[in-house]
Amino acid sequence: MTGTLGRHVRPIDWQQRTSGAARYTADLFIAESLTVRVVRSPHAYAAVRSIDTAKAATMPGVHAIITIADFPPGARYIHEGARDRPPLAEGMVRYVGQEIAAVAAETAEQAAAAADAVVVSYDRKRGPLTIAAAQGAWSAALHKRTNGKNISKSLHRSWGEPLQGSSDGVSVDGRFVFSRQTHASMEPNSIIAQWDAEQGCLHLWVSTQAPIFVRDEVAQILGLAKEQVVCHEVFVGGGFGSKSRISEHEVIAAALALKVKRPVRLVLDRNEEFETTKSRHAFHMELALHADASGHMRAITGRFQVDNGAYDHSGMSVTSAGMKGLGLIYRPRSIRLDAQLIDTATLPGGQFRGYGTTQVTFALESLMDELAGRLERDPIDLRLQNANRDGEETLIGARPRTVRLADCLIAARDAIGWDKLRNTRPAGHGVGIASGVHLSGSYAERDDANRSDAAIDMLTNGKVRLRFGGADTGTGQRTMLAQIVAGELGLALDDVDVMTMDTALTPFDLGAWSSRGTHYSGHAARLVAKTATKKLESLAQGRVLPIGDLVALSNEAVDGMLTVEASFVETAVQRPDPKTGLGNVSASYNFAAHAAHVKVDTRTGKVELIDYVAVHDVGTPLNPAAVHGQIVGGAAMGIGAALGEDLVFEQGKLVTTGYTYYALPRAADIPSIRSFIVNCADPLGPYGAKGVGELGINPPPPAIANAVADAIGVRIRELPITPDKIVTALARKEGRNRHFNIWRRPDRWWIAFVRWAYPLGLFRLLHAWRTHQPSRSVPPEIEELAAPASLDEALSSLDRGAVPMGGGTDLLLRRSQMLSTATRLVSLAGIADLSQIAIAEDGAVTIGSAVSLSRLCAPSATHPAVAAAAQSIASHQIRNMATIAGNLLQANRCWFYRNGFECYQRVGAKAPCYAILGDHRFYHAAIDGHRCQAVTPSDMATALTALDATIHIRGRHGTRTLPIRALYTGPGQTVLQDGEVIAAITLPAAARTRVGAFRKLNLWHGDFAIGSVAITCRIDEAGCWHDPRIVCGALAPVPWRAVETEKALAGRKVTAALLRAALDEELNAKAHPLARNAWKLDALAGLCEQAVEEINEKVGR
Amino acid sequence: MSASAVTSMVHVVFWLVPGLERRHQMVSVKRQMVVNDTAFDVDVGLDDTLLRVIREKIGLTGTKEACGRGECGACTVLVDGVARLSCMTLCALVTGKVTTIEGVARERPDICAAFADHGGFQCGFCTSGQIVSVAALLQESLPGDPAAAEHVVRDRLSGNICRCTGYGGIVASVLALAGGDR
Ligand code: FES
Ligand code: FES
């Protein structure tokens, strides 16, 4: 290889991307721009009776409002030819968040206000919200389909020999669920559209992976010629598949730009991102593997149900790609698969890194371990025996030239220390392996999908520029292209510039998807660079001259620029046969093996990754650092899918609409993933390279599931593997059961009755007839903001509805969630008197209410248990901003309440509690739940309750002091009256003599507690506990003290087992869990055991 | 700008005449903001977040908005050297000196270079926030033991989500930078 190829170089755009100079779409502020806000459906399934824009149209700043009436009749996206999706709702809405209308106004606030004022009248219907519901006899049909009700498509694949009866072999099967994962790209979808009437040209700056698809669909829907639509180059902040086709905002912005004749700007907010980015399709898979007694795989059979969502987006090709993935890793003799794409009235599924192969790999690789277990074989040996090899045509017609899967497996085995871990792993530890495969660009969708063009401009100053039509969303593709050109032309990397994306200035390329970047753009760049070299050689005629001089010699140069173009067409690929799916769709295939070492906390269900190894066969890496980056980034996303990421819906509405509610890995959630490259040049790849962008995401879910099964002896078949699933599975395995004897507890009868009545119609009644909040997407403006210097000043301004504010991290959030309409805010954060920590002579510690959580993180600042609690909260930045009082007084964090559900807590008695039937596994009460199932979320409250803290409250009419247990009246609700503030919190002198521990279980580092525990006590010389406090947070509406257990332990030498016995008894007597959160009792009891152990360790017992 | 000028701004108080009719006109105050050691006179609406003012009124677009509500860290800036989320900070309440990515990149080009050398970024959208957080982190000393240091780094950077890199490159960048002073 030439030049820097094969070596690590800094990305060519590193200075821009690391200094803030890189301009992403939303960073372009074009003069005279209007801002767009989209009106979206609040209903999962409804007929749209009318859309009244009259009032909104007259509102200040509003320039235009569009509805479907503004489009040509029958306008539909093409996509895979499904043509079932209009650019704005036409007659029906089929998922929550579907676009109905859009407003362009002078400012974002005006656009939002006008969008709120658009009156849509609906005829609500009951839509099928799940796969099961869609197939029910009485379910509504979402579309007119020819395959059967709510079946968008059916697909049958049968490859290889006919299935034979296998009397001497073994079979394993299972039902696996891969739930919905969302891309959560950090850059929100954004577009700026500007119509140039003079030139008849629509200019788009849009965050996309595939400009050409955006151009074609926009032109098609708006009735423009393709040349009239031009995408320009911008920096793109991640895509992961979500931006590889058009979404909806592009056409909406384009249509508005045409209408208002001014530039318009549409940047989705994070809610919209979560609610409308087409997620990974959920796969429900029944899969079976059949092998002979020696372990040779005979057959794979299976049946998939794929949640298509409300519209066809790419479900068919995702499903078909997944099926093919099953024919690439191993060498079965026969494959029989059936799949159905089921219409549901939910967010449509879409393209996501891995594209169907991710889902099926989870099932296949989980079953491989089960097969190994049945055959009493080592899981890696069994995989090696069956691994695909090069030079053979596979069942699905693929002809990979290089297959280094076996090498990957062996390298992964060695790197993780497989043999040693398998033989000597400590309790709770486990190790797992999984293989994976992906393509290097699928020859799919269109006849020209095997082609990529590139051009080079050479300048008299010796610099060259590559022009390429794809988009670098962060993969480092531009750098790789520059390396190729620089290498071929013998230039320094600095002398090569790369232009991408511009559909007017760059030649044909389909964009960054299907891991095609390396293969197609690599070849195109290589080809055009070779063409340039030839041209230069012919100019040089044997002389050695710099490029600039040669350009000057050329009579083909225009304005000092000599241009060459080249078109690469891959002839080794075939379009798959539409009937059989057979065909060699990719020039090369990349393989991988990942190994995971986990530690499962069997008490709390938390899975910790101890070590993670990813070995990839990527051909020859052209830029090893970038390749490792793709592997590690992909693996981290796969780990997210394995352990936490899940889109949760209720009544068709997304519950998890934000990073807070979406457990994607944070830095502290994963170890340094160790990636290795098995180097082997592929004869068809550019310089031997293969694709790498997607595969990293495939092996982690099964590798981790296999490691978890190895650790605890139970297999989790439904992703993500969250603590509830582990704790529940272990309880079942060990035959543990809790009985709550509600029939003996009259105080719970009424609640038990209501919970019983909910599924029988009460919920539906309340849901249908609930009070509605006025629709509003921006909070009322702040009218007054005071930053007083003293508490007295602050108190005097806390009148007429003014509210106190600490760090603002909850109040401002609640304003944006329409949970606070306060317009007069009084900031307490700057009051010096409230920012002190004072230690009295007797040792009592008084913490000012405005002391930041950061300051409490030091164990010496107050008490180690307080420090541990502070340290567990949110993030460093939030801890710098948030105050202790703000933490204590934050409103509850129930994900229904916070995320726009019109629930009891939000709108009042005539509304249901969505947690009763909805997903309440993590953040809801298992003790004492009443009308609302939420909990007090403050971890500080847990710790301070265990230290007998007192709260000093100041109001205009005096002061009062309360023990902290008297502060709370309900979930996040307190006795504080209007005009009162917390001035300080005191830890009594006795707290100093208390040994304590704080423990917390959550889904991601910094998340709110699923449960938190603080235990403190005094321990005498003999090691006996006195006056213990056992406090559980996030278990009941208010911090919950295990008073009976405290009594039982007082005066005794406490061990984890002793505590557990007493606590279990108390929990069984007092808990009243919801249907799916009884596991929290086990987990909290486990946390308590750990706290006891920590305390005993601290005092050396 | 001198330190005394900054402290005198601390007491700019926003007592506003109550009850004013302000339906379609945002209440705003004139402020002098010191951003990256340069003073800017800006009209700040009471609703304006620091993020909005930095990006839209001062025109420094390096600071990014990825969530707008304190979940992701993309908008991290330093106020008097302390890392804060500019999307959850009302600009009218800010009295300290603000440093954004543009300022950090100028003062600490070594952090940017380390990110480039160790795969600390891919798409770059989280990178401004990451680098600002790293600048704050590097004001403190890390444990000498590499595993302990990694632990601290991962904890401290957990408020900065990155969807591209899997964090390995970011952590490696910081450890390499910290290793230099050890
Ligand atoms: S944009 Fe401020 S935290 Fe996400
Ligand atoms: S580099 Fe893309 S989100 Fe971090």
Biggest interface: A-B, 88 and 89 residues
Report the structural category of chain A: alpha+beta
**Strand residue content of chain A:** 15-25%
What is the overall shape of chain B?
elongated
Biggest sheet: strand arrangement of chain A = 3-5-1-12-9-10-11
Please indicate the count of domains of chain B: 2
> Largest beta sheet of chain B, briefly?
3 strands, antiparallel
Treating each run of at least 4 consecutive H or I residues as one helix, how many helices of chain B?
7
By CATH's scheme, which homologous superfamily of the largest domain in chain B applies? Beta-grasp domain
Describe it for me?
- The complex is a heterodimer of chains A (1101) and B (182).
- Chain A has four domains: 17-129 and 186-273, Aldehyde oxidase/xanthine dehydrogenase, a/b hammerhead (Aldehyde Oxidoreductase, domain 3, Alpha-Beta Complex), CATH 3.90.1170; 283-443 and 578-730, Aldehyde oxidase/xanthine dehydrogenase, molybdopterin binding domain (Aldehyde Oxidoreductase, domain 4, 2-Layer Sandwich); 444-569, Aldehyde Oxidoreductase, domain 4 (2-Layer Sandwich), CATH 3.30.365; 748-1098, no CATH class.
- The relative contact order of chain A is 0.08.
- Chain A has 31 helices and 41 strands.
- With 1101 residues, chain A is α+β, with helices and mostly antiparallel strands.
- A seven-stranded mixed beta sheet of chain A has the order 3-5-1-12-9-10-11.
- Chain B is α+β, with helices and mostly antiparallel strands and 182 residues long.
- Chain B has two domains: 3-98, Beta-grasp domain (Ubiquitin-like (UB roll), Roll), CATH 3.10.20; 108-177, [2Fe-2S]-binding domain (DNA polymerase, domain 1), CATH 1.10.150.120.
- Helices cover 37% and strands 14% of the residues of chain B.
- In chain B, helix 3 crosses helix 4 (109-117), helix 3 (101-107) crosses helix 5 (127-137) and helix 4 (109-117) packs across helix 7 (168-181).
- The two termini of chain B are 34 Å apart.
- At the A-B interface, helix 1, helix 16, strand 28, helix 21 and strand 30 of A face strand 4, helix 3, helix 4, helix 5 and helix 6 of B.
- The complex binds FE2/S2 (inorganic) cluster (2 copies).
- One FE2/S2 (inorganic) cluster is lined by residues 65-68, 70-75, 85, 87 of chain B.
